[in-house]
Amino acid sequence: MSERSLRIAAVRITPILIEDAPLLNLQGVHQPWATRAIIEVETDGGVVGVGETYGDTEHLQALELFGRELPGLSVASSNLLWRVAERVLEPGTVASSLTDGKPSSWVTGVASLRKLHAICVSAFEVAFLDALGRSLGVPVHELLGGKVRDRVDYAAYLFYKWERHPGENTPVDDWGAALDPPGVVAQAHRFIDRYGFKSIKLKGGVFEPAREIAAVRALKDAFPDLPVRLDPNGIWSPETAVEVARELSGVVEYLEDPTSGQDNMAGVRRETGIDLATNMCVTTTDEIRSAVELDAVQVILCDHHFWGGLRATQQLAGICEALGLGLSMHSNTHLGISLAAMTHAAAAAPGDLYACDTHRPWQPEDVIEQPVEFVDGAVIVSDEPGLGVELDRARLALLHKRWMTSDVRRRDDVGAMRTADPMWVKPAFPRW
Ligand code: GKR
Ligand code: MG
Predict the structure, then answer these.
(1) 416 within ligand 1 shell (Cβ under 6 A)
(2) Index of the ligand 1 atom closest to the CA of residue 26
(3) Which residues have C-beta within 8 Å of that of residue 212, sequence separation ≥ 6?
(4) Is the pLDDT of residue 289 over 70?
(5) Looking at the predicted structure, is the pLDDT value of residue 258 above 90?
(6) CA-CA-CA-CA torsion for 373, 375, 378, 382, nearest 10 degrees?
(7) Which residues are close to ligand 2, an ion, with C-beta < 5 A?
(8) Which residue among the candidates 30, 115, 198, 330 is catalytic per the annotation?
(9) Closest residue to atom 1 of ligand 1, CA basis
């Protein structure tokens, strides 16, 4: 393989809209269409590597700025992506909402310049590794040192949901509504019958805690052998979180972000001894030290999209192993390229891994030819070259056309909720 044939000749960033279900969370409801960006890097040798990331307008602008700098770089030089980020992504060149130190709207911690760098590096690192793997004829997990597991377990990610989106011409799914314990249990049955998942997570923060406690108890009654988790995205006060933790001690495997901030999380742990997980109060490496000193979290949910990529995930796995922390994976609405990337990262991550979150069953569409399947609750790690997925260009073009002809440009769960309830305002923290 000549060095020249690994050099990038072209970069393509394609914004798309995908169908999404009316899933409820603390902010409101998912919109009928979710934005994503599909990344392609093409080498001089004619090999194309793919990646997938956030597709909001501000991200697209940052990705475009970043992508322009890449032609000429070798796909074997992912480390240099951080230098590119430092050079081109600075306050002034990117939207301030991406770096303003405020919690990000999709609930993955505080927005910062470093996190924006990590988001762009990750999107292209995945595409670099896919192209490199394809060029060398080896799977991505081998570029990460080889798989330490053959299958990666995922969790059934349950949501309270409506039967359909409000408004006209909105897509209708066949999942039905889930707004009470029987609805949630029925949703879990469907997930487990169809995909064989062996862990259950319920997105909470939607209804008052007593109602969500009842749903978790109903899940545990229906599936006594399966671990169950509840994640209200930090919307409870520390006092409420302590009460819920006492109610659900011995019922849940862990509580995920029951309250906001490391100090409050540490208080809940101190008072109740319950295991706590987060994708909100530890989202960068510099937040790990204080979390450990405070004993604020016992499980970190990594997300390669904002931790800096697949190698950053591996590093985090090593840190968690060394510090005695558990590791799982966080997810947002995503397609099969991201599922493949998560699976390679998880396959090469040392230490124990909790079943990872995935939104994948919620989106009926994809941009790859063969969907990445769940077998017995897991994805079997692919040994095909690169990520092991093939871009479906016709499908990509169709979903891009939808983006071109729509005015949806960013995730807005609050706005989507207002379509149904014009008086809806984003709840202040803590709500309960
Ligand atoms: O998709 O509504 C959602 C979730 O609430 C998502 O935005 C969260 O980031 O899944 C996430 C979580 O675990 O916090
Ligand atoms: Mg979470």
Answers:
(1) no
(2) 5
(3) 202, 204, 205, 206, 230, 232, 244
(4) yes
(5) yes
(6) -60
(7) 231, 256, 279
(8) 330
(9) 332
- Residue 330 is among the residues annotated as catalytic for this protein: yes
363 C-beta closer than 6 A to ligand 1: no
Mean pLDDT value across residues 321-332: 97
Which DSSP symbol is given to 185? H
Give the Å distances, CA to CA, from 124 to 38, 66, 110, 406: 10, 9, 22, 26
- Can you tell me the mean pLDDT for 336-358? 96
Q: Which CATH code fits 3-141+393-404?
A: 3.30.390.10
CATH class of 145-380: alpha beta
Give the rounded percent of residues in the chain with a pLDDT score beyond 90.
92
Say how many Å lie between the CA of residue 108 and the centre of ligand 1: 8
Global pTM?
A: 0.97
Tokens of residue 16, six digits: 């798309």
Q: What is the pLDDT of residues 221-237, one digit of tens each?
A: 999 999 999 999 999 99
Q: Say if ligand 1 is within 6 A of residue 328 CB.
A: no
Outline which parts of the chain fall under CATH 3.30.390.10.
Answer: 3-141+393-404
pLDDT at residue 320 is higher than 90: yes
Q: Where in the chain is the domain with CATH 3.20.20.120?
A: 145-380
